[in-house]
Amino acid sequence: MITILHNNRCGKSRAALQFLESKGLQFEVRNYLENPLSEVEIEDLLSKLDTSIHNIIRKNEDLWKENFSETTYSDSGLVSILANYPKLLQRPIVIKDNKAIIAREIEKLEKFL
Protein backbone atom coordinates (compact mmCIF):
# COMPACT_ATOMS: atom_id res chain seq x y z
CA MET A 1 0.00 0.00 0.00
CA ILE A 2 1.15 3.54 -0.79
CA THR A 3 0.52 6.41 1.61
CA ILE A 4 1.21 10.08 1.01
CA LEU A 5 1.67 12.41 3.97
CA HIS A 6 0.00 15.40 2.40
CA ASN A 7 -0.52 19.11 3.03
CA ASN A 8 -2.95 20.56 0.51
CA ARG A 9 -1.53 24.07 0.97
CA CYS A 10 1.87 22.92 -0.36
CA GLY A 11 2.46 23.01 -4.11
CA LYS A 12 5.02 20.18 -4.01
CA SER A 13 2.59 18.04 -2.06
CA ARG A 14 -0.25 18.76 -4.49
CA ALA A 15 2.06 17.89 -7.41
CA ALA A 16 3.00 14.55 -5.84
CA LEU A 17 -0.65 13.75 -5.17
CA GLN A 18 -1.56 14.61 -8.77
CA PHE A 19 1.28 12.39 -10.02
CA LEU A 20 0.03 9.43 -7.97
CA GLU A 21 -3.50 10.00 -9.30
CA SER A 22 -2.24 10.23 -12.91
CA LYS A 23 -0.55 6.84 -12.56
CA GLY A 24 -3.82 5.23 -11.49
CA LEU A 25 -2.20 3.91 -8.34
CA GLN A 26 -4.17 2.98 -5.26
CA PHE A 27 -2.99 5.03 -2.33
CA GLU A 28 -4.09 6.53 0.93
CA VAL A 29 -3.86 10.26 1.66
CA ARG A 30 -3.04 11.27 5.20
CA ASN A 31 -3.42 14.95 5.92
CA TYR A 32 -0.82 15.02 8.65
CA LEU A 33 -1.87 18.48 9.86
CA GLU A 34 -5.34 17.19 10.73
CA ASN A 35 -4.14 13.71 11.70
CA PRO A 36 -0.62 14.21 13.11
CA LEU A 37 1.89 11.40 13.41
CA SER A 38 2.57 10.06 16.88
CA GLU A 39 6.12 9.82 18.21
CA VAL A 40 6.08 6.08 17.47
CA GLU A 41 4.92 6.74 13.90
CA ILE A 42 7.67 9.33 13.42
CA GLU A 43 10.30 6.85 14.64
CA ASP A 44 8.92 4.27 12.20
CA LEU A 45 8.95 6.85 9.41
CA LEU A 46 12.58 7.70 10.11
CA SER A 47 13.44 4.03 9.76
CA LYS A 48 11.60 3.84 6.43
CA LEU A 49 13.29 7.01 5.20
CA ASP A 50 16.65 5.76 6.48
CA THR A 51 17.48 9.26 7.67
CA SER A 52 17.90 11.38 10.76
CA ILE A 53 15.18 13.45 12.40
CA HIS A 54 17.17 16.55 11.40
CA ASN A 55 16.41 15.84 7.72
CA ILE A 56 12.63 15.85 8.06
CA ILE A 57 12.19 19.07 10.03
CA ARG A 58 11.39 22.26 8.13
CA LYS A 59 13.87 24.58 9.84
CA ASN A 60 13.00 27.53 7.60
CA GLU A 61 9.50 27.73 9.05
CA ASP A 62 8.87 30.75 11.29
CA LEU A 63 7.47 28.37 13.91
CA TRP A 64 10.89 26.67 14.14
CA LYS A 65 12.90 29.88 14.03
CA GLU A 66 10.81 31.61 16.69
CA ASN A 67 10.44 28.73 19.13
CA PHE A 68 13.13 26.09 18.67
CA SER A 69 16.17 27.31 16.74
CA GLU A 70 18.03 28.69 19.75
CA THR A 71 18.13 25.39 21.65
CA THR A 72 19.87 22.08 20.98
CA TYR A 73 17.57 19.08 21.28
CA SER A 74 18.15 15.34 21.51
CA ASP A 75 16.75 13.22 18.70
CA SER A 76 13.90 12.12 20.96
CA GLY A 77 13.22 15.76 21.82
CA LEU A 78 13.00 16.59 18.11
CA VAL A 79 10.63 13.67 17.55
CA SER A 80 8.43 15.05 20.32
CA ILE A 81 8.48 18.55 18.78
CA LEU A 82 7.50 17.13 15.39
CA ALA A 83 4.66 15.12 16.94
CA ASN A 84 3.34 18.26 18.62
CA TYR A 85 3.96 20.65 15.71
CA PRO A 86 3.24 18.68 12.52
CA LYS A 87 3.59 21.84 10.41
CA LEU A 88 7.36 21.34 10.79
CA LEU A 89 7.34 18.03 8.89
CA GLN A 90 8.97 18.02 5.45
CA ARG A 91 6.48 17.34 2.70
CA PRO A 92 5.32 15.46 0.84
CA ILE A 93 6.45 12.09 2.13
CA VAL A 94 5.43 8.98 0.22
CA ILE A 95 5.54 5.62 1.96
CA LYS A 96 5.47 2.30 0.14
CA ASP A 97 5.80 -0.90 2.13
CA ASN A 98 8.90 -0.51 4.32
CA LYS A 99 10.47 2.41 2.43
CA ALA A 100 9.69 6.10 2.19
CA ILE A 101 10.98 9.23 0.48
CA ILE A 102 10.58 12.96 0.75
CA ALA A 103 8.98 13.39 -2.66
CA ARG A 104 9.67 17.03 -3.46
CA GLU A 105 10.83 16.11 -6.97
CA ILE A 106 8.46 14.14 -9.21
CA GLU A 107 11.40 12.38 -10.89
CA LYS A 108 12.52 11.06 -7.51
CA LEU A 109 8.98 9.89 -6.75
CA GLU A 110 8.68 8.16 -10.12
CA LYS A 111 11.96 6.31 -9.58
CA PHE A 112 10.88 5.33 -6.07
CA LEU A 113 7.62 3.79 -7.27
TrEMBL record:
SUPFAM superfamilies on file: Thioredoxin-like
Transmembrane segments: none
Cited Pfam families: ArsC
Annotated InterPro entries: Arsenate_reductase-like, Thioredoxin-like_sf
Protein name: Arsenate reductase
Organism, scientific name: bioreactor metagenome
Source lineage: unclassified sequences, metagenomes, ecological metagenomes
Gene: yfgD_1
